[in-house]
Design goal:
Layout (H helix, E strand, L loop, with lengths): L21 E5 L29 E6 L2 E4 H7 L5 H4 L5 H5 L2 H16 L4 H4 L3 E3 L4 E3 L7 E4 L3 H11 L17 E3 L5 E3 L4 E2 L2 E4 L8 E4 L3 E2 L2 E7 L14 H4 E8 L2 E2 H7 L13 E3 L4 E2 L7 E2 L17 H4 L4 E2 L2 E6 L2 E4 L10 H9 L10 E3 L14 H4 L7 E3 L2 E3 L7 E9 L5 E12 L4
Parallel strand pairs: 6-22, 8-16, 9-26
Antiparallel strand pairs: 1-2, 1-5, 2-3, 3-4, 6-7, 10-11, 12-15, 13-14, 13-22, 14-16, 14-17, 18-19, 20-21, 20-25, 23-24, 25-26
Bound molecules: calcium ion.
Calcium ion binds next to loops.
Length: 434
């Protein structure tokens, strides 16, 4: 029986050689004794590292994953020490020039005919492997960068305010520090959190499982090269530090959040879990998707001003078309190109006080919502805080129920009319343990 060679991809495959996102996987038969989403073990910076459960850096090609370290070794590449690792950390830390060099080498490995016989046995069907959290998350920050999302929340919760946006919103990208230790890989169950809640009608707070468990459709940016404490990272240096992006679901317990957030912001209503896709798409794969962000309607301070000539030829927006599904039914299609603050502005703002970056820092864009209701990136917007339930083929929904599965996918325009697929992020709600 002849078998299709995975190096011969179908025309238009969104995970073709123009994409090549990175992940970490264990091949079939590895002694996997850790739960999906557990943090990779720390790895020495040099040489081959054999993780206990066989995890290794992989590069996605179609519905296969290439064992990148094994390919590097088989082809005599100098990048073995970066790729034969149980985590993306060493590659992330290597910096922009090396990222480009490694990507160029990988592209050759999967496209040059002379390499086919060597590379073919190093491709594993995705259906046979276990995918892991691809890097050790250092700090995790989440922003609030979509004007449509922030305006919707403002209309719901501050109906008497003169404008839906807070006075600072158009002047700085608002964010908060989240919990890096609970960032989990796609496919990890999310246990419904329990906590305190108190509605205005209640005389005292009550404790119990969240009754308003929600999603936030976001894009996560992954920092590779660190920065120096005390030295801000200017807008123009964004691509020197940020390696790539992933899809991110910032699970949110709205009832816990509403009671706890004044005056210091999100805490337990967010920190129980944040899911990311198993694949990190390098920014280099997304050059054709770069777009000018929405027009700025307030003058920006110089460190955030991306209309300046020095950065105007590096448009900061990305045209990512996100789809959110609940139990297999599409509930929203948020367009990332509508997000007001760019990832470069977020990075500049996050470091303008001298705070430094570490390899593995992750920052979320904030919920991506477009202008129209079918583009809202959270259930609180899609149902207007539960007032207007979604009508799904399997019943009505306001917030998430136990057993619900939420999946985000996305694609971006690629070179020459191709599409660049982003890895999905999915999670199922497990009953509260509390
Ligand atoms: Ca968020």
């Amino acid at each position: 029986m002849s078998e299709q060679n995975p190096l011969d991809l179908p025309e238009g495959d969104p995970f073709g050689p123009h994409n090549l996102p990175y992940g970490v996987f264990s091949p079939a038969g590895s002694a996997t004794d850790s739960a999906p989403g557990s943090a990779p073990g720390s790895a020495p910076a040099d040489g081959h590292v054999a993780a206990r459960d066989g995890r290794r850096v992989g590069v996605r090609l179609g519905s296969y994953v290439l064992d990148a370290g094994a390919a590097a070794a088989a082809l005599g590449s100098p990048y073995v020490s970066l790729l034969a690792q149980p985590t993306l950390g060493p590659l992330l830390a290597a910096g922009r020039r090396t990222w480009s060099d490694v990507r160029r080498a990988l592209t050759a490995w999967v496209t040059v005919p002379a390499h086919r016989d060597i590379v073919r046995p190093l491709l594993h069907p995705l259906s046979d492997v276990t995918l892991h959290l691809p890097f050790e998350v250092a700090d995790y920050v989440d922003f609030y960068a979509s004007e449509h999302h922030a305006s919707n929340l403002g209309r719901m919760f501050r109906p008497d305010a003169p404008t839906p946006l807070t006075p600072n919103w158009k002047h700085l990208p608002i964010g908060y520090h989240g919990r890096s230790g609970t960032v989990v890989v796609s496919g990890t169950d999310v246990v419904r959190p329990a906590g305190q809640r108190k509605t205005p009608a209640d005389t005292a707070p009550v404790f119990g499982p969240s009754t308003k468990l929600d999603i936030e459709a976001e894009v996560g940016f992954v920092v590779g090269a660190p920065s120096t404490l005390g030295t801000p990272v200017p807008l123009a240096d964004f691509r020197e530090h940020v390696f790539g992006l992933c899809l991110l679901n910032d699970w949110s317990a709205r009832d816990l959040q509403a009671w706890e957030y004044v005056p210091l912001g999100p805490f337990l209503g967010k920190s129980f879990a944040t899911s990311v896709s198993a694949w990190v798409t390098p920014l280099e794969a997304l050059d054709a998707a770069r777009v000018v962000p929405p027009a700025r309607t307030e003058p920006l301070l110089p460190y955030l001003d991306d209309s300046a000539e020095s950065v105007a030829d590096e448009p900061g927006g990305y045209d990512l078309r996100i789809t959110v599904s609940l139990n297999g039914h599409v509930i929203s299609e948020p367009p990332f190109s509508t997000v007001y603050w760019t990832a470069a502005q977020q990075l500049a703002h996050m470091t303008v006080n001298g705070a430094s970056l570490r390899t593995g820092d992750l920052y979320g864009s904030g919920t991506v919502s477009g202008p129209s209701p079918e583009q809202f990136g959270s259930l609180i917007e899609l149902t207007w805080n539960g007032r207007d339930p979604l009508e799904l083929p399997d019943g009505k929904r306001t917030f998430l129920e136990d057993g619900d599965v939420v999946t985000m996918t996305a694609w971006a325009p690629g070179p020459d009319g191709t599409r660049v697929g982003l890895g999905e992020v999915t999670g199922r709600i497990a009953p509260s343990g509390g």
